[in-house]
Design brief:
The structure is a single chain. By secondary structure, the chain is α/β, with parallel strands linked by helices. The protein has two domains: 242 residues, Spore Coat Polysaccharide Biosynthesis Protein SpsA, Chain A (Alpha-Beta Complex); 46 residues, no CATH class. 44% of the residues lie in helices and 19% in strands. Strands 1, 2, 3, 4, 5, 6, 7, 8 and 9 form a nine-stranded mixed β-sheet that branches. Helix 5 crosses helix 7, helix 8 packs antiparallel against helix 9 and helix 11 runs antiparallel to helix 12.
Length: 308
């Protein structure tokens, strides 16, 4: 690659080796622009580190930064600081960018210098590859209004963190991801970017989110809500109040939660319900998986028995 890339794609990896190659391939296959992929290995303990290094050895567009496990936010800070392109795109490990995603977002960003952030719709995918549901963003104006005005119950950001592309200059002007935000670091950043300029939406499904039943994001929901409250409080506060609010964000206890069999069974039943609504016969295998983890999952039993 000669000169500077058009887009720097930043992603953080902590384990998840089994789906990593699909993610990397979806980015490296993007056409119509020069890109670099900055992958932060956040202390992976599985085969993810080796996979990243193998890709970097074969493709000069891949830049790998290895660091001890410090969490998603600090990994993204490191990745964005290493980005060389004028535009930064996010990508989450395990997810896939559809063909043309980066070029379409880049064209929309470059068509209006007032635009600072671009997103698109997302397709959520079950572990077996089945289509679960689509999340569609409203207009960019409505997203921006919500970020700048709504409370924690109604605020809306992007359909997925990994759908974002933003100007590097605006990112640093906004103050980067804030290390104090272990959760809701995306909403906190989108609020500050919204104050700087326009948000636009490519009206297409550009991104596929891998739905992982064993993920702990749902388990950490109370912490996510608290960080969102703080992001909104910072948005609405006087400048002199910001240090105390950031100290409060940084002081929220780090609770290392694990996904229980009950949590995983609940997620599998949710997948089964989505597929059943879509008339996809694969719903039964997820309902049975939920029952194997939790034999007393009454709703899964009822769904299966009434389908006979």
């Amino acid at each position: 690659m000669s000169g500077l890339p058009d887009v720097s794609v930043v992603m953080s990896i902590y384990n998840g080796a089994e789906t990593l190659a699909e993610t990397l391939d979806s980015i490296l296959a993007q056409q119509g622009l020069e890109l670099e992929l900055i992958a932060i290995d956040d202390g992976s303990t599985d085969d993810g580190s080796r996979i990243l290094d193998d890709y970097a050895a074969r493709d000069p567009r891949v830049v790998v930064i290895h660091q001890p496990n410090m969490g998603l936010t600090r990994a993204l800070i490191a990745g964005c600081r290493a980005a060389r392109a004028p535009l930064i795109a996010r990508q989450d490990a395990g997810d896939r960018s559809r063909p043309g995603r980066l070029q379409k977002q880049r064209q929309l960003l470059e068509s209006d210098p007032r635009t600072v952030l671009v997103t698109g719709h997302s397709q959520y995918i079950a572990p077996g590859g089945e289509n679960l549901y689509v999340v569609i963003d409203p207009s960019g104006d409505e997203i921006r209004r919500s970020l700048l005005e709504d409370d924690v119950q109604s605020i809306r950001g992007l359909t997925a963190h990994g759908t974002a592309m933003f100007r590097r200059s605006a990112y640093f002007e906004a103050g980067e991801y804030r290390a104090q935000f272990r959760f809701a670091q995306d909403v906190d950043l989108w609020i500050r970017l919204a104050a700087l300029g326009r948000i636009e939406v490519v009206p297409e499904i550009l991104y596929e989110v891998h739905f992982e039943p064993r993920a702990i994001s749902g388990v950490n929901r109370p912490e996510q809500i608290e960080f969102m409250r703080l992001a909104i409080a910072l948005r609405d506060s006087a400048p002199g109040d910001a240090p105390a609010l950031l100290d409060r964000a940084g002081s929220i206890a780090r609770i290392r939660r694990v996904t229980t069999r009950h949590d995983e069974a609940k997620a599998l039943y949710f997948i089964a319900s989505c597929l059943r609504s879509a008339r996809d016969s694969h719903w039964r295998k997820y309902a049975w998986s939920a029952i194997r983890l939790n034999p007393f999952h009454l709703r899964a039993w009822v769904r299966l028995l009434t389908s006979l």
